[in-house]
Amino acid sequence: MIRHISKKDIVESLCLSNNLYIVRVDSFNSILNNDINNKVRNVFKIDNEGNVIWQIFSNSDLEQDGSFQGIRMDGNRLKGYRWNGGQYDINIETGFATPEILLK
Questions:
Q1: 60, exposed or middle or buried, with CB in 10 Å at 0-12, 13-18, 19+?
Q2: Mean pLDDT score of the chain
Q3: Strand partners, 88
Q4: What is the average pLDDT across 32-53?
Q5: Taking the alpha carbons of 100, 7, 14, 45 in that order, is the dihedral positive or negative?
Q6: Do residues 47 and 53 make contact, with C-beta atoms less than 8 angstroms apart?
Q7: d(Cα 97, Cα 51) in Å, to the nearest integer?
């Protein structure tokens, strides 16, 4: 598991309260070590120092699902979407992503 994320590696960030952030790293970033398990799990919850609290995971972390291409808040719910058009509800406390809808 990746333990630290540098600001230079972040392509998208959402600020939560208490100096916590949800961030997305580009799936081609070398921090993911060209490991397909990391490439499809490219969303993290970090603290203000970049220490990883969790790395996103789901029951469908397969290469064909692709990496996450966006994250957003919908009210108090965290949403993410993958390149294949799948939208996920992401548990902010645990990082578990549940598929919701297929956008394509």
A1: middle
A2: 90
A3: 80, 99
A4: 90
A5: positive
A6: yes
A7: 20
